[in-house]
Write a structure and sequence with these properties.
Helices cover about 35% and strands about 15% of the residues. It is of the alpha/beta class. It has a 5-stranded mixed sheet with strand order 5-4-1-6-9. The model has no long low-confidence stretch (mean pLDDT about 95). It binds 1-O-phosphono-alpha-D-glucopyranose. The site of 1-O-phosphono-alpha-D-glucopyranose has 10 residues, from helix 9.
């Protein structure tokens, strides 16, 4: 049903400077995979084939990562390293990749609006790859189940209002929006109509809020653990958690943490 996923990846990554001065934040590793690859894998595991990545200046590494690396593959084939060869090849086989540039840093809403022509008249997913989610069932797949059922059930909410970055005392509830969305094509005219919001940026939240008066908007409390890898602390916590589960380095890391009396 959902065939396309949009990955906004044009931000400056200021919270990670200086490492993001010349390298995309989306390429920061979660153990050994770039953050954005985790997002793409989640989309793939949810049945999505078309990956639309919104990039900008200095983001070429993302395109190279999802492209075939002929030289690397040839070198690995010559060495007879089948395991690494298929690992490298599998990345470019994860889907069909499309790129669009966000020429001005006007916010998440603006980034999504840039994909209007590529998405066309169909529902689509948006994945913010700095929200890392550890779950048994990919979150997007969990969300499809909700849309198909269109039922208010366990963990499903009919949204009455939403606000971008409220002050804690002004927050309408303790439920937060994280970076997984399934949106209808009607979001595009809504994005065209909104004015700059929080931080002076065009906010996706404001466009979804505008849809509330026209259509039903559901929220889903997913099953899994979310790490805010858009912050240094969340990024490190995600790395430690994923590394502890890694069969190769997990036991050794646990041992190290024990010795250092960290855990
Ligand atoms: C972004 C979005 C915000 C969303 C959040 C989810 O904010 O602008 O609407 O709720 O991601 O993680 P950021 O965390 O990049 O400031």
């Amino acid at each position: 049903m959902i065939r396309k996923a949009v990955f906004p990846a044009a931000g400056f990554g200021t919270r990670f400077l200086p490492v993001t001065k010349a390298s995309p934040k989306e390429m920061l590793p979660l153990v050994d995979k770039p953050l954005i690859q985790h997002g793409v894998e989640e989309a793939r595991a949810s049945g999505i084939r078309d990956m639309i990545i919104v990039t900008g200046r200095g983001k070429n590494a993302i395109e190279d990562h999802f492209d075939v690396s002929f030289e690397l593959e040839a070198m690995l084939a010559k060495k007879g390293d089948r395991k690494l060869h298929s690992l490298v090849r599998s990345i470019s086989d994860m889907g069909d990749f499309f790129y669009v540039r966000q020429n001005l840093p006007l916010g998440l809403g603006h980034a999504v609006l840039r994909t209007m022509d590529m998405v066309g008249e169909e529902p689509f997913a948006v994945i913010l790859s700095d929200d890392v989610i550890d779950s048994k069932v990919p979150v997007l797949r969990q969300m499809y189940g909700i849309i198909e059922g269109r039922k208010i059930g366990k963990g499903v909410y009919e949204i009455v209002d939403m606000v971008e970055k409220p002050k804690p005392e002004k927050a309408p509830s303790d439920l937060a929006i994280i970076g997984r969305y399934i949106l209808p094509p009607s979001i595009f005219p809504a994005l065209q109509a909104i004015k700059p919001g929080a931080g002076g940026e065009l906010q996706l939240t404001d466009a979804i809020r505008a849809l509330l008066s026209e259509e039903r908007v559901l929220g889903y409390e997913f099953e899994g653990v979310r790490y805010d890898a858009g912050t240094k602390l969340g990024f490190l916590m995600a790395n430690i958690s994923f590394a502890l589960k890694d069969p190769e380095i997990g036991p050794l890391l646990r041992e190290f943490l024990r010795k250092e009396r960290i855990s």
